[in-house]
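Marked as duplicate of an earlier ticket. Keeping the data here for the record.
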Amino acid sequence: MTVHEAIYQKYIAPTARKAGAYVGVELEFPLVNLSRRPVDIPAVQTVVAGFAERFGFSQQVRDDNGNLYSLTEPVTGDNLSFDCSFNTLELSFGKEESIYELYERFSQYIGDIQAHFRDIGHLLTGMGIHPYYKYNDSVPIANDRYRMLYHHLQSYKEYPERHFHRLPHFGMIAAASQVQLDVEKDSILQTLHTMNRLEPFKAVLFANSWLDCLPDLLISRDYLWAQSTQGYNPHNLGMYETDFSGLDEYIEYVAGQSMYCVGKQGRYFHFTPIPLRDYMRTAYITGQYFADGAWRTASFRPEMEDIAHLRTFKFADLTYRGTIEYRSACEQPMNAVFSHAAFHAGLAQELDALTELLDTDTVLYHHGYTAPELRELLTHRTLPSFIRRKALSEKLREILELAQSGLQKRGFGEEAFLEPLFDRAERLTNPALDYVTALEHGTNAEELIGRYAELSSLHAGVPLTSLKLGEMELRHGCQLAHDQRR
């Protein structure tokens, strides 16, 4: 089998069937110790064990220290896990047709576990950056995968010619909202092209990862990923730089994405990223693996089945499940936590109309900027001068009305999940802008953490700056690379 055939079998073949209405959702939440100390892992483990017993999450995985880090409910396939470290908790759900089905289970899980976390002075909150990251221990979960990943991110020091930032633990402080939707073979390219052009508009609606040492950015996640060793090969993450003329061109693009890790001989190796096509042509790869408390070096022979370990992080990524996964959105406040899933589920039903709307747009496009350049511009706090605020607000509303129409066609009554987004479009704001503005007006950080943790619509439609002000908690000083942001 050739590399191109292997890519086809992994990514294209699963789409050769009629797409369903199913939705898969993954939600990551910072776990905050409200006493401004590191997460209390023993206490958190007690909470998680109790949760597993109450909800029947019987399929359990422990790390090398004996700590539970992944729990699955065998009937629904719902999973509770910790992502990268014990500072971030992830809830992922078995696929369902109705987002309401997922929301009902989510509400039960969160209502239960939040009460027990509060009892130990902790809280899950809906933010894309851990608000108390400076108080956390930056220690990966003690298993092969996360130990390898952290070591790979720390290897930025080996590439002095590259301008990587000095936050290799960013995976332990960043949180995302991800959704997977079925896609059919004939619509793969249109979906990728259209959703790629949608990204600048999404930046305005879903920004929620403000970081004090990148104060001009409302979405620091884009920068943290791109300027790390995960961005060694830009084709592995972010947006597509061009439209593909056909599936063969897309497959060739995937062949140019880089391998950086693989499981071999019971070991997890990582190595200097190398494009998949070159990886398969190389007689031996030299990588590092962890054993007996130390990192060791060994060589291995690449095999075609290693393609299973090709890990990419495009904003819209075709997966081996016959789905496209959308992963550019920061985690959202709890009261809008399914807005991202509903947004994409609705627009997928109106793909032709969305394509036409974006192809003819002049609010953002046709001003000399590509889609990736527009996305980068719109991650900033200040809008570019060529953008007319009223026109942008109206365009966002048009997009949301298309999403609303698509949800109506789905027939599950999911339109309610879009309500917070209409307010953001009208005010041209987002959770990150509301958060930093509130901080600057003196609102206490812990108060905001609590508000972003509320499952009810406590502050839906109300600018956070209008809330009661208290002592400002704004700290600076995380260490970046020498090439500071422009």
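See parent ticket for discussion. The two ends are 46 Å apart (CA to CA).
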